[in-house]
Amino acid sequence: MKKVDSNITMILLLAVILIYFIVGKILNIPLSETIFMIGFILLFLIIIIIHGWKTLGAREILIFFLMAYIIALLYEYTEGLGFGQLLGIRFSYSDMLGPKFLNKTPYIIPLIWSLSLYCAFTMTNITFNRVRTNQNYQEEISRRWFLKIFGMGIIAGLIMISWDLINDPVMVEIGGWTWSKYGLYYGIPLLNFEGWIEISMVIFVIFSFYLYKMKRCQMYIGGEKQSSYTLFVVVVYLAILVVYAIYAVYANVTYVIPWAAITMGLVSVITVIQFYRFTSKKLNLQIGFI
């Protein structure tokens, strides 16, 4: 029996997401319906798990999600470790997003964090050539390494912000949560975006250190198509943009679509260019060696 290619599996799952949306429209299910929204999230979760299983390994993707979920949950529950309360910029979740942790933070929120951060983590690693095609690659820990990882964590946070340019206004408009103060970006406080960088950087640094200790790097083990498989994360990232664009139309906040499309599109283009730049450089080195 021929083994099904993982790329094909993920493409089929993206097709399932499209069908899921069409069926929802036919049945007149509101996009803000809790169960319907959770369905979207779970479908993307399956895709990310498959991708992470191949590029990181079963144990590593499990550790990533546990780490990202717990840290994001604590950060959300404490409202930015108390900074939100200190500055008087608070937020509250409605019941639209399902059951809540200690009646405050919906359990689904850290999961959304984890899904998006996985994309940001992988795309950042591709951009800085930390995705390798063999198991002989080992990083050496040093002060320079820490500074590099710290900086990459900030980049991952900026990638997260590019997604939140559409996520936050849309979710506020459909009633997912509310802010105590009106912010400069269509009602969203700028402190919110700082929080995205902060938490993304923390998770990026901790998980990168874990991978170092385990002597693992993000790679697809098998043949010459390793990195091209890893690059598939860009397709998932853009698919998330499409879903939120649909929600933006539904919520009548189409004015946020260009901001997200420009920033997320730019990030995607840079990731693809960097991937092929490093791939070409490696190929030239091999030809020169031969």
How many structural domains in the coordinates?
A: 1
| Structural class label | mainly alpha
Low-confidence runs: 221-225, 283-290
- The Rg value, from CA coordinates, equals 19 Å
> Would you list the SSEs in sequence order as H and E?
HHHHEEEHHEHHHH
Percentage of residues in helical conformation: 55-70%
Q: How confident overall, as mean pLDDT?
A: 84
In whole angstroms, how far apart are the ends? 38 Å
Count of helical segments? 10
Side-by-side strand order of the widest sheet: 1-4
Topology (SSEs and partners):
Elements: H1 6-26, H2 34-55, H3 58-77, H4 83-87, E1 91-93, E2 100-101, E3 105-106, H5 108-127, H6 143-173, E4 177-179, H7 190-213, H8 226-230, H9 233-250, H10 257-289
Antiparallel strand pairs: 1-4, 2-3
